C-alpha cells in the first residue's frame, strides 16, 4: 500500500461503478483497548463480502480521506483513510493507518468475493 | 519443575498467543521428548499492525502470519501444528458445541495428559474466551477422574484477585533460546516487544529476566 493520491483513488473507485462488487469494511480500536484503558469505550464494526452496487463514489478531504458510495437504496462511507493499493487481483484495498502503523479502518472493493 | 506428560495439546485462537507466556513450556516439553500438538484456530486475519509505511495489506496479512506461525512452531520444535481454519474475531459467534466437537476429536485422537488453553472469564480477548470455553466444554465431557490436566493462561486485570496466584510455575530457563525464537518468528506482531525485551534482558532488568525464566498457569477449577 502507498499513501493515498486522491485523483488516482477517485479513478479506481469509478472503475467499479454500476456493477456488482463485494465490500469489506471494518473499523477497530483493537480488542485490548478497554483492557489497557478501562475508561475507553470500545466500539467497532466489521462486514465482509456484502454484495452491493453503487451509482456514485467519491473520495473527499485533504487527508486522512473519506470515501462515500451512493447505492440505489442507501449509502456506505468510511473516514480516516490514509493508504491504498490496487492488488494483483484488481481489488481496491484502502486502509487508515495510525502513526504507529496500526490499522483503524479498512475499506475494500472487489469484483470477486474476498476469501 | 515441569512434570512429565504423555502428550501435550495446546489450543489457542491466534498465531502468537503461544509466544509470550507458553513457548518456553512447549519447547521444554519437546526437549524432554514429549509430543506436543499445537492447534491454532485462526490465522490472526484481523491483526492491526500493518506498519507505516505498510508492509502488508488486510488481505496479505494472513499469509504472512501463517508463515510466522510455522516458523514459531519450528523454533519451539513442534512437529504437529494444526491450523483449524476459523476466522479471527469470529470464534465467539461460532456454535460452541461444534467448536467443542473439534476439540473432542483431537482429544480422542491424541489422548493428551495435559491441555493448555486460555482461562474462560480471565483472558480478555473474545476469541481467547471462546476458545477457553470450548476446550473446557470438550474436557467436561470426559468422566472427572479420566480428564487430562487443564492448565490455563489468564491475564485479565482481575485474574489474581479472583483466581489467586497461579498454582503452576514452570522454570523454562533451559528453553530461553527457543522462547525468544518463537517470539521473533511472529515479527509482524512482536517486533516492538522483542526489541524492547532484548534491551531489558541485556540490562538485566529483573522483571524481564523473570519473564524469560518462568511461565505461569492456573489449573482449571471444575465445578463438578
TrEMBL record, chain A:
InterPro entries: DUF1806, YojF_sf
UniProt xrefs under Pfam families: DUF1806
Superkingdom of source: Bacteria
Record-linked Gene3D superfamilies: Hypothetical protein YojF
Protein name as annotated: YojF family protein
UniProtKB/TrEMBL annotation, chain B:
Gene3D superfamilies linked to this entry: LmbE-like
EC code: 3.-.-.-
Keywords: Hydrolase
Pfam families membership: PIG-L
Cofactor(s) it depends on: Zn(2+)
InterPro entries registered for this protein in UniProt: BshB2, GlcNAc_PI_deacetylase-related, LmbE-like_dom_sf
GO molecular function, one term: hydrolase activity, acting on carbon-nitrogen (but not peptide) bonds, in linear amides
Superkingdom per UniProt: Bacteria
The protein's enzyme class: hydrolase
Entry protein name: Putative deacetylase YojG
Native source species: Caldibacillus thermoamylovorans
Gene from which the chain derives: yojG
Amino acid at each position: 500500500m502507498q499513501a493515498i493520491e486522491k485523483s488516482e483513488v477517485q479513478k479506481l473507485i469509478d472503475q467499479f461503478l454500476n456493477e456488482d462488487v463485494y465490500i469489506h469494511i471494518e473499523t477497530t480500536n483493537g480488542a485490548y483497548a478497554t483492557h489497557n484503558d478501562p475508561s475507553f469505550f470500545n466500539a467497532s464494526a466489521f462486514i465482509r463480502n456484502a454484495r452491493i452496487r453503487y451509482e456514485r463514489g467519491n473520495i473527499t478531504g485533504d487527508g486522512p480521506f473519506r470515501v462515500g458510495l451512493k447505492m440505489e437504496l442507501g449509502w456506505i462511507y468510511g473516514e480516516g483513510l490514509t493508504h491504498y493499493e490496487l492488488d494483483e487481483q484488481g481489488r481496491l484495498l484502502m486502509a487508515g493507518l495510525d502513526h504507529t502503523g496500526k490499522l483503524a479502518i479498512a475499506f475494500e472493493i472487489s469484483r470477486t468475493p474476498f476469501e | 519443575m515441569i512434570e512429565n506428560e504423555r502428550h501435550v495439546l495446546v489450543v489457542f485462537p491466534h498465531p502468537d498467543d503461544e509466544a509470550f507466556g507458553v513457548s518456553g513450556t512447549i519447547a521444554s516439553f519437546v526437549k524432554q521428548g514429549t509430543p506436543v500438538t499445537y492447534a491454532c484456530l485462526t490465522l490472526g486475519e484481523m491483526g492491526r499492525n500493518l506498519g507505516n509505511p505498510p508492509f502488508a495489506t488486510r488481505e496479505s496479512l494472513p499469509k504472512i502470519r501463517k508463515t510466522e506461525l510455522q516458523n514459531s512452531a519450528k523454533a519451539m520444535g513442534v512437529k504437529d501444528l494444526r491450523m483449524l481454519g476459523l476466522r479471527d474475531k469470529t470464534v465467539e459467534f461460532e456454535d460452541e458445541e461444534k467448536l467443542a466437537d473439534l476439540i473432542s476429536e483431537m482429544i480422542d485422537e491424541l489422548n493428551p495428559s495435559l491441555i493448555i488453553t486460555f482461562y474462560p472469564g480471565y483472558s480478555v480477548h473474545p476469541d481467547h474466551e471462546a476458545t477457553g470455553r470450548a476446550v473446557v466444554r470438550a474436557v467436561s465431557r470426559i468422566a472427572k477422574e479420566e480428564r487430562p490436566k487443564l492448565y490455563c493462561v489468564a491475564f485479565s486485570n482481575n485474574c489474581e484477585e479472583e483466581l489467586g496466584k497461579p498454582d503452576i510455575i514452570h522454570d523454562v530457563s533451559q528453553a530461553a533460546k527457543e522462547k525468544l525464537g518463537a517470539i521473533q518468528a511472529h515479527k509482524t506482531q512482536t517486533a516492538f516487544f522483542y526489541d524492547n525485551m532484548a534491551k531489558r534482558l541485556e540490562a538485566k532488568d529483573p522483571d524481564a529476566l523473570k519473564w524469560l525464566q518462568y511461565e505461569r498457569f492456573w489449573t482449571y477449577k471444575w465445578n463438578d
